[in-house]
Amino acid sequence: MRTRLRPAPEGQGPQISLLIVVLSAIGCAKAACGDGETTCEVQGGSYLARLPPGEAEGPLPLVLLLHGYSSSAEGILGKADLAEVFGAAGFLMVAPSGIDATWVLPGSPEAEDGGGRDDMAFLDAVVADVEDRWRVGPRLLGGFSHGSAAANVYACGGSTPWDALLSVSGTFWEPMPARCEAALPVRHSHGTADQTWPPEGRRFSPTVKQGDVWEGMAVWAATAGCAAAPVEERRGPTTCAVWPGCALALCQHDGVHEWPEGEADRQLAWFEALPPG
């Protein structure tokens, strides 16, 4: 039997029309999330997402990117080589926004100032929203500078499983954790002439210091149970310390505090060369 629609009671027509408009606007905003420009709102903040070109035939591989201090989601999502390399490889690219263009991390100046958003809980909300909107496959977590530090902290906490960590020019702040909740493949890239986050770290105050990148990698090595000392391998413009038997690489170049040219290509090639499982 066909259901007959009754007209709205007198005086309620405008309200119902307004409700339809509001719901339509919400639906359009939800659909627009994923175009790389429209903000996607979650509890505690927002993020940008860029879907790969074309129609996906299965789960989308995900790369979640955390911007550096004083930068933005737009800034890291706009890095040309990231968009070209990961977009062409079919990745869904997601870039959360830090409050006041930064992240509150253990040992960081923001944590010493007190207050602020729980950024790890916010990132959990971002991942949950992404999984609600799209079917996600392999997951990569990356970041630059202070965002790289945030990526290390987030991956180390273990609240979300990742298939690899791709960090650039930043590690944990001191004091570093002894171990992380779970082992995972890690590739870190750093410039030997970096003066913003020197490889050995930089002290901000008697109680605030950036971590040493070698000590940061030692945390991941301890977590993975790597017994052997790292050995050096020359890989194009970088010299990489790799831990035998472990999927860990610390790759250094002679540059400064920057996103190195060709870095996204090297990151993806390294990830794709990892043994299954």
Description:
With 277 residues, the chain is of the alpha/beta class. It has a single domain, classed as Alpha/Beta hydrolase fold, catalytic domain (Rossmann fold, 3-Layer(aba) Sandwich). The protein has helices at residues 13-32, 73-77, 80-88, 109-113, 119-133, 146-157, 213-224, 263-272, and strands spanning 40-42, 45-50, 60-66, 92-96, 136-144, 164-168, 186-191, 203-205, 208-209, 231-235, 238-242, 248-253. Strand 1 (40-42) and strand 2 form a beta hairpin. Helix 3 runs parallel beside helix 8 (263-272). Residues 1-8 and 16-29 have low confidence and may be disordered.
The largest sheet has its strands arranged as 1-2-4-3-5-6-7-12-11-10
Helical content stands at 25-40%
* SS summary, helix count: 8
Provide the β-strand percentage band. Answer: 15-25%
Could you tell me the CATH topology label. Rossmann fold
CATH homologous superfamily identity: Alpha/Beta hydrolase fold, catalytic domain
Which structural class is indicated by helix and strand composition?
alpha/beta
Instruction: Give the CATH architecture.
Output: 3-Layer(aba) Sandwich
Largest sheet: 10 strands, mixed
Q: Tell me the number of strands.
A: 12
Mean pLDDT across residues: 90
Instruction: Please compute the radius of gyration using only Cα atoms.
Output: 22 Å
Shape: globular
Q: What would CATH call the class?
A: Alpha Beta
- Any low-confidence stretches, pLDDT <50, length ≥5? 1-8, 16-29
- How many domain modules? 1
Series of secondary-structure elements, N-terminal to C-terminal: HEEEHHEHHEHEEEEHEEEH
Roughly how many Å apart are the termini? 55 Å
